[in-house]
Amino acid sequence: MLPTKALTAPSPHTDAAKALIDKIRALREEIPRFTTTGMDDARLTNGGVLLPEKFMESASVAVQNSVRLEQAGGADANTLRDAYAYAIAFDPVVEELLALARFVAHSIRVQRGAAGVCALDVYSLAKRLARREGGAELRPFVDDMRRKLKKPGRPRKASSDPVNPATVPPSAPPEQKSNP
Q1: How far apart are CA 92 and CA 31, in angstroms?
Q2: Looking at residue 38, what is its pLDDT?
Q3: Minimal CA–CA distance to 2: which of 173, 139, 149, 165?
Q4: Residue 59 C-beta-side C-alpha neighbours within 13 Å
Q5: Residue that wins the pLDDT comparison between 88 and 178
Q6: 3-state DSSP of 150-178
Q7: Pairwise CA distance, residues 53 & 113, whole Å
Q8: Count of CB atoms within 10 A of residue 63's CB?
Q9: For the segment 126-152, what is each residue's pLDDT rounded down to a tens digit?
Q10: Per-residue pLDDT for 122 more than 70?
């Protein structure tokens, strides 16, 4: 049986990752008007997301100058302008969070790659040492790593039997060019 100490011991990074997740979730409380309700309801966002800023201003001026529009629309000019100003102000926050997510994902890939290169070096060294005298204790590790490194679903080649010349049809003789 191979030792599994590394797999069962808690990672020192787990606590740091959990603390960071808690900080990220706490940011929700700091974002004014933060909401998760209606995320699956496209009707809440599709209508006005891509409207030009000049159009928004024209609409707020129209509401400001017409009591009838204000009463019928259910929003005053200040509310409309404030909602749009909120959107403009917090758009860069989204971009920054997306950039952070990309950088964290990149950092994870770099660390996973470094660990993978190290593991391949260990495997290569273990294979060499297992072939030497006194390397019998490494053979179970090498066999285990070899099994786990194989990609599932790839059948091995049947054999490397030489082709029987009797079963191969003869090729036609090359055509000779005639000179005119």
Answers
A1: 13
A2: 77
A3: 139
A4: 17
A5: 88
A6: CCCCCCCCCCCCCCCCCCCCCCCCCCCCC
A7: 45
A8: 23
A9: 999 999 999 999 999 999 999 999 887
A10: yes
